[in-house]
Amino acid sequence: MLPATATTSAAPPPPPPPLPASPGGEPHAALLLSLAYLPLRELLSCAGACRRLRDAVAGDPLLWRRVAVAAPPLARRLTDEALLALTGRAGGTLRSLRLLGCTRVSDAGLLRVVERNPGITEEKG
């Protein structure tokens, strides 16, 4: 038996309306804008989530203008070839490259990246 002060709970509120779909089932524009704020590891993970996100991430050279690799396991696994492929996503517009603990990247590999990205600069921080 319920106490005299108890009331029955109201029906749950209706769910919010869904966000409008992007044309062709593309990822929502807000999601695409947020990709620019992801660290490299999360950006790579996002690209592996589904085909549409992979295409969105791979097709936007602005996402790859600043590459920073500073934490394991990515730092330990990065090779010259992988670095060249990763920085190649910038389409020659790479501006900043920070590598810490990347023992498998050689000076020759770095030189190839710089040759393909003539606008690369060093950030002071």
From TrEMBL:
SUPFAM superfamilies: F-box domain. Gene3D superfamilies: 1.20.1280.50, Ribonuclease Inhibitor. Coiled coil: none annotated. Residues 1-10 have a biased composition (Low complexity). Pfam families: F-box-like. Residues 11-21 have a biased composition (Pro residues). InterPro entries: F-box-like_dom_sf, F-box_dom, F-box_LRR-repeat, LRR_dom_sf. GO terms for cellular component: cytoplasm. This is F-box domain-containing protein. Residues 32-67 form the F-box domain. Residues 1-25 are annotated as: Disordered.
